[in-house]
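FW: tagging you since you asked about this chain on Friday. Here's the raw sequence from the shared folder, copied in full. Didn't touch anything.
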Amino acid sequence: MKTRITFILLIAAFFSNLGSLQAQDPRFSQFPAAPVYLNPAMTGVFDGTFRFSANYREQWASILGDVPFRTISAAFDGRSQIMKTDYIGYSLIAMRDEAGSSRFGQTMAMVGASYLKKLGGNKYAFNDQYLIAGAQVGGGQYNVEWSKLWFSRQFNTTTQLPDPDNLGSGEPTGNSGKTTSDFYTDVNAGLMYYTIFDSNKSFYGGIAINHITQPKIRLFDDANESLYMRWVAHFGGEFPITDELSMLPAFSWMAQGPSRSVQVGSNVRYSNHDWRELAIRAGLWWHLVNKLEKGISGDALIFSAVLEIENINIGFSYDINTSVLNLATNSRGAYEVSVIYVQPSKERIKVKCPKF
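HL: got it, structure written out here
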């Protein structure tokens, strides 16, 4: 009985969200740890010479076993001075996303550039203000393995089991195996503003538009199947509590077609302020999504922790599922791991950037 209930819940959840799953990008709970993916204008916004970041997310393993939703991303970005106070940033990002038994997924890669325009500040690098414009150009492909799926016509009512080997699916896909879409080209763009008030006090905010060209992603001959544009708005900052403690709140809002995603929360950061700085962060976040015509509601509570060892940040987070699907998942949602390395700058006058 428990197996049947779980199966029915999964099917209901799938079909109730089918419209939103169509042309929906993956997301990271640790969105501040995936800056180049979040907003092209965050390219080059860090304290150092270059930055490398990597993110891994795995979701729904509690019900999908060895074929959960997996997303892995890696990015490199740097910055070069072109005027006394202005800089140009550059980046390269690649991502692979895969979901469920059909291995439905996408592979994409993009190159990016940004311009960091200083609006104000002083020689101590406090009250620095920057306006950044960024863009990315690249492309990718979608793929699915039809042979991994079975359809209702392939359910044997005698054995009460699926029998794809002997029963035809009746679908145009047949048993053609892996199908890959045509390569598509894509363009993203974004803006960001930040200001530094003190060594542990800052504010930033930005907006981004992804898939401006609305590329075709069809796996069939339907020429009207396009990837929805994804709109992003985000802001955050750092605010001191004591000399050693500070709050790092952040907010992100994403809209793509009929889908909406909101995440809000904060990390608390403790630093020993030594020459070889060691800091730790711990935080709680709330993720909300829309249910199409039913409005927006809570999807997950997210616990996060980050260890900062000199120039390396290692982050871990876990999503506790709070939606109706928690009856099937037993509240087990997703986990993420992030790693960021920043090469220190040797410049005498350094660019100060917010902590994300």
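FW: Confidence is low (pLDDT under 50) at residues 1-21.
HL: agreed, and The radius of gyration is 22 Å.
FW: great, closing this out.
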